[in-house]
Write a structure and sequence with these properties.
The chain is of the alpha/beta class and 217 residues long. The protein has two domains: 27 residues, no CATH class; 163 residues, Trna Endonuclease, Chain: A, domain 1, CATH 3.40.1350. It is 45% helix and 25% strand. The chain contains eleven helices and seven strands. Helix 6 crosses helix 7 and helix 8 packs across helix 9. The chain is globular and about 65 Å long.
Length: 217
C-alpha cells in the first residue's frame, strides 16, 4: 500500500516502481541521520526528514566501488534524470561546482538544488570516503554562505546533505549535535562492475600483485 500511494503521488512508471521496490525505498526513505528535529520548526522537520534517504542507490552509474569524487559527480550529472528520480519529488537542479565568492576567495559547492515543497536551497557534498566530523563544519560554512548570497525573503534557511561512502552513526551524531545548521548525512551505493559470482572467482589485487612478483623473481 505504501508503494501504491507513492505511485499516485509521484506518477511513477512501471519501470520506476519496480526499481523502487527492488531498491527497498520503503526502508530507506527518511532513514538518514539528521539534526532536523532540533534545527527546523516542527512543521518543516518531518517533511525535510522524509525527503532524505539512507542509503542512496546509484546503481545506474556502473562505476564500481573505487570511484573518485570527480568521476562520481560527472556520472551523476550524465545520468541526471536517474539522479533526480533517486532524490525524489520536488528537487530542482541548479548547478554543479556551484561558485560562491566568500571573503574575496572562490569556493565551489559540489551540487546545488532547490526543493520546491520546502522552499529551501539544498546543498549536496559528495565524499568517496567515510564521514569525518570536519565535513559537517564545511557544510555549515556553505549553508551560511547560501543564506547570505542566494536566499530570498520568501525562502526558508538552506539545508545540507553530505553523501559519503560510509558513515559511523556515533561519529555523525556527535558532529551534528551542536550544529545550528540543518543538515543530514547518508551513505550511497554504486553498482559493482562485476556480478557477485564472478567477483568471488577472480583473484584480488593483492593476489595479482603477489603473482607478478613471483614471476619477476
Amino acid at each position: 500500500m505504501w508503494y501504491a500511494r507513492q505511485v499516485v503521488e509521484h506518477g511513477w512508471s512501471r519501470a520506476v516502481l519496480i526499481h523502487q521496490i527492488e531498491s527497498d525505498l520503503h526502508s530507506r526513505q527518511g532513514a538518514a541521520l539528521t539534526n532536523f528535529r532540533r534545527t527546523l520548526p516542527p512543521e518543516h522537520s518531518d517533511l525535510a526528514q522524509q525527503i532524505i534517504k539512507d542509503p542512496y542507490c546509484f546503481d545506474f552509474l556502473r562505476t564500481g566501488t573505487d570511484v573518485t569524487e570527480d568521476r562520481l559527480q560527472k556520472g551523476l550529472l550524465l545520468r541526471l534524470r536517474d539522479f533526480l528520480i533517486e532524490l525524489g519529488k520536488g528537487f530542482a537542479f541548479l548547478g554543479s561546482e556551484y561558485h560562491l565568492e566568500i571573503g574575496g576567495q572562490d569556493y565551489f559547492l559540489d551540487l546545488l538544488f532547490y526543493h520546491l515543497n520546502l522552499r529551501r536551497f539544498m546543498a549536496i557534498e559528495l565524499k568517496v570516503e567515510a564521514f569525518k566530523p570536519e565535513f559537517a563544519g564545511k557544510m555549515g560554512f556553505y549553508l551560511s554562505a547560501l543564506d547570505d548570497l542566494l536566499r530570498r525573503p520568501e525562502d526558508d534557511p538552506s539545508i545540507g546533505l553530505i553523501l559519503c561512502k560510509e558513515r559511523n552513526r556515533i561519529i555523525v551524531e556527535y558532529a551534528l549535535r551542536d550544529s545550528t545548521k540543518p543538515m543530514g548525512v547518508a551513505e550511497y551505493r554504486v553498482a559493482s562492475l562485476l556480478p557477485e559470482d564472478l567477483r568471488t572467482e577472480l583473484p584480488s589485487a593483492e593476489e595479482l600483485a603477489a603473482e607478478m612478483e613471483e614471476r619477476k623473481s
